[in-house]
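Sequence in, structure out. First:
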Amino acid sequence: MTRTDPPVPWKQAYRSLYYAQAPEPADPKLERGKLGLLVIDVQNAYLRRPDPATLVGPGRATYDAWTPFHERMHRIVLPTIRRLLDQFRGDGHEVLYARIACQTSDGRDRSLSQKLPGWNNLLLPKDEWESQIVADIGPQAHEIVVAKTTDSALTGTNLRLMLTNLGISQLVCCGIFTDQCVSSTVRSLADESFSVIVIEDGCAAASEALHYQELEIINMIYCHVMSSSELLGYLP
């Protein structure tokens, strides 16, 4: 799927071949006391940028390639997450966060996927500035934050137990990256029989193509995908 103007309503949007002819889903019945917002991996490490004037050659090419991601984050994703936080907090719904943060300074406790060479091999010790959640959308004092060394926020933490203790069975997910930690978390939640909604304008991937491709992959089986405006119409 590619974006359309005007946008397709969520019940028809992001249909892969698997679900091209599937009936429209029913309206979600979100319930007070069972609903939570999960913000995934919006951390300083992913939003910092070098001074482009100091870059040449491949460094400048990499900077330019990532510019659309940063523009989307600041223009769309961060404002959407702030809006969701304000709404959930104001209505008394649970707000939770996940972040990548290893317990050891050398990262030896990280999962294999976070040790392999390449872009995902980031060393983010739990107390360093790079591993902290971006202050503009950061947690309030009483809100739960889980530190993970896996892509899924469920697999390597006690988040599953805490959600059960809180009585939460419905999660609204946003954050980065759509095709990595967001997708991995959503899949894990679905496998554990949580009902999941992913907010399209509250997520981003390295490229727009990867973002929309992943939404099409996970929609209708692991979650339902909708915009923040569409979600707000269903909040209790």
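Second:
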Amino acid sequence: MKFRLKAFGLHLAASTCALTLILGGLYLGWYRWPGWYLTGVLRVLIIVGIVDLGVGPTLTLIIANPKKPRRALARDIMIIVTVQIAALIYGSATLWQGRPLYYTFSVDSLEMVQASDIDAKEITLARQQNPALAPYWYSRPRWIWAPLPDNPDEAAKIVNSAVFGTGEDVVDMPRYFRPWVDCTTQLRDHLSPVSEIRYLSKIEKTSLTQRITKLGLASDQRNAMIMWGGGRRVLAVFDPQTLQMVALLAPS
């Protein structure tokens, strides 16, 4: 039993180190709040965690018989490790493709944009026409303004394609992105008191109002807006004077 527990412990330690290194890097780089919440990344992490921290070491505990030939034991462990690596690659690739790249304000809403939302053609155009705000492999999440183009025909084309689902929205076109500081006037016009925001239940409004009050802000000020991402939402709260971000609160 001592041999089995030692093998189990070593396998668990190695798996934990590998998982922590990879997932920790992704979290620190791209998935800090509200990224991990809006993307629903916990579902992927649960699958990877079960395989790498649960199934893998447990199977090693079961097969680690000191009487088994070392070659056979090494083969069995390699099979287990291969499955673990496949799960880790799957999870890492999924997280990489879904990593948040932008938190955008466009027209009248806030929205998270993930790497998978922007196709290769748009990336190429952005790097040619708007390199400062174009996405690169090392790009971290950025707050930006995504206004419709000045050309009315082009703007109408984008709106129609977004409404009817026949093409991309402007938030998926980084060639049109502009710095966040340029949108303060437009942003201020679309902020609302929590009590007037749609998509929130009465219970959620009450809870959020209390939390905003604890931040030292008046709950009846026009200082909030919903931000969407991956089917989830958070409440973005701004300082009404400076329009600096104060908090991103998950409804509860």
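Remark: The mean pLDDT is 90.
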